[in-house]
Specification:
Length: 347
C-alpha cells in the first residue's frame, strides 16, 4: 500500500481524504492543515489518521511516500516542488499551478527527482469521458469539426482565481484527453460583475482554434440561474452529446450530419445533403471518478509509469488558461499558444 498524506482540509481535501482512506491500494497516514479546528472536524471519522499543522513534518517523515495537495492555487507550485525535492510523489488539485512558469517548475522538479507528478483532472476518470474517448479513438465520429462546452451555475465564487481558472480546467482537461494536442490560438472574453474591484471575472467565453478545421468553444459562468453541464462533439460522420447532469443517459451518439457530393458539378451548386440516422446511448460503467483517480495514482507509483493526467497534461491546460487570461485582458485579442504542440505521451 502507498502511504499518503493529504495537504489541505478545505473544500476539496475531504473528498481526497475519503477516497485515499477507502482505496485498497493506499493508506492515509496524515492530513496537514493550519486550521486545527477544521482539521479536527474533518478527521473525526478517521481516528487512525494523524492531524498535522506543519507541512515540514510531512516532508521529514520517511514513511510517507506521497502527498496530495488540495490548497489554494498559488501554493501548488511551492508546496509541490518542495515535496518532490524531498522525494515524495505528488498529486495536485486542478489546476496544476497558477502560471505556466510555475507549472514548468513542477514538471522539471518531477523529472529531476524521478518521482510521479499527477494532476487531479477528475473527469478524465469518469465513465462518460472514458466511453467518449473509446468512441473517438475507434474512428466512429470521423474527423472532429467542433467541440462546444457549457459549464455554468450560480456560485460558488472564488476569491483567489476567476471563473476561467476555477471551472474551465475541467473541460479543458477533457479536451486535452480527447484531442491530445494544444490549440494553435485562443480568443477569450470575460467580465466581472460581483467583484469588480478585485477584477475577478465571473463570466467568460473561450474560443480555441486548432488550425486544422477543429474549433472548440467554452462558456463558464458563476452567475447562471440554472446549472448546465453540456459537452458536444461534432464529427464528419457522427456526433456526441454529453450531459453530465443527465441521470441515466449521459452520453448520446447521433448519426446525424451532412453529406457533400463528390460530383464537381454538384459542388458548384453548393449542394449539401442532410443525414438523419439513429440516436443511441452506450452503457456507462458506474464508478466514482475520484476513486478511479486515486487508484491510478497508486498504480503509477507502484509501477513507475506515466499517469494519464501527468504533469505535462496539467501544463498544457495551464498554457491554455494563461493564454485565455491574456486574451481577456486584451479585450478578446487572439493569442498564439506556444510550447509543446505534439501528441500526448501514451499513458
Amino acid at each position: 500500500m502507498v502511504r499518503v498524506a493529504v495537504v489541505g482540509a478545505g473544500y476539496w481535501g475531504p473528498n481526497l481524504i475519503r477516497n485515499f482512506s477507502a482505496c485498497p491500494d493506499t493508506e492515509l497516514v496524515a492530513v496537514c492543515d493550519r486550521d486545527e479546528e477544521r482539521l479536527a472536524k474533518v478527521l473525526r471519522p478517521y481516528p487512525g489518521v494523524e492531524a498535522v499543522d506543519d507541512f515540514d513534518r510531512i516532508l521529514r517523515r520517511v514513511d510517507i511516500e506521497a502527498v496530495a495537495i488540495a490548497t489554494p492555487v498559488h501554493t501548488h507550485a511551492p508546496l509541490g516542488v518542495t515535496a518532490l525535492e524531498y522525494g515524495k510523489h505528488v498529486l495536485v488539485e486542478k489546476p496544476l499551478a497558477g502560471s505556466v512558469a510555475e507549472a514548468e517548475q513542477l514538471v522539471a522538479a518531477a523529472k529531476h527527482s524521478g518521482r510521479i507528478l499527477m494532476v487531479d483532472h477528475t473527469f478524465i476518470f469518469s465513465g462518460p469521458v472514458q466511453k467518449i474517448k473509446q468512441i473517438i479513438d475507434s474512428g466512429e465520429l470521423g474527423d472532429l469539426y467542433f467541440i462546444d462546452s457549457v459549464r455554468i451555475n450560480l456560485g460558488m465564487f472564488q476569491h483567489d482565481v476567476n471563473v476561467v481558472w476555477d471551472l474551465a480546467p475541467h473541460d479543458l482537461s477533457i479536451l486535452d484527453y480527447l484531442v491530445g494536442r494544444l490549440p494553435s490560438s485562443i480568443s477569450a472574453f470575460g467580465t466581472s460583475h460581483a467583484n469588480e474591484l478585485a477584477d475577478i471575472e465571473d463570466v467568460a467565453y473561450l474560443n480555441l482554434d486548432f488550425s486544422d478545421g477543429l474549433l472548440a468553444s467554452f462558456h463558464v459562468n458563476w452567475l447562471s440561474p440554472v446549472k448546465v453541464r453540456h459537452f458536444i462533439i461534432g464529427g464528419s460522420n457522427k456526433s456526441i452529446v454529453y450531459d453530465d447532469l443527465e441521470p441515466t443517459e449521459r452520453v448520446k451518439v447521433y448519426d446525424r450530419g451532412i453529406t457533400i457530393s463528390d460530383d464537381v458539378e454538384t459542388k458548384r451548386g453548393v449542394m449539401v445533403g442532410y443525414r438523419t440516422g439513429d440516436v443511441w446511448s452506450p452503457h456507462i460503467q458506474g464508478v466514482e471518478p475520484l476513486a478511479q483517480m486515486v487508484r491510478h495514482f497508486a498504480e503509477c507509483i507502484r509501477e513507475n509509469k506515466q499517469p494519464v493526467t501527468s504533469g505535462e497534461a496539467g501544463l498544457r491546460v495551464v498554457r491554455i488558461l494563461e493564454a485565455a487570461q491574456r486574451s481577456i485582458k486584451a479585450q478578446g485579442g487572439r493569442i498564439t499558444i506556444s510550447g509543446e504542440n505534439l501528441l500526448r505521451h501514451a499513458a
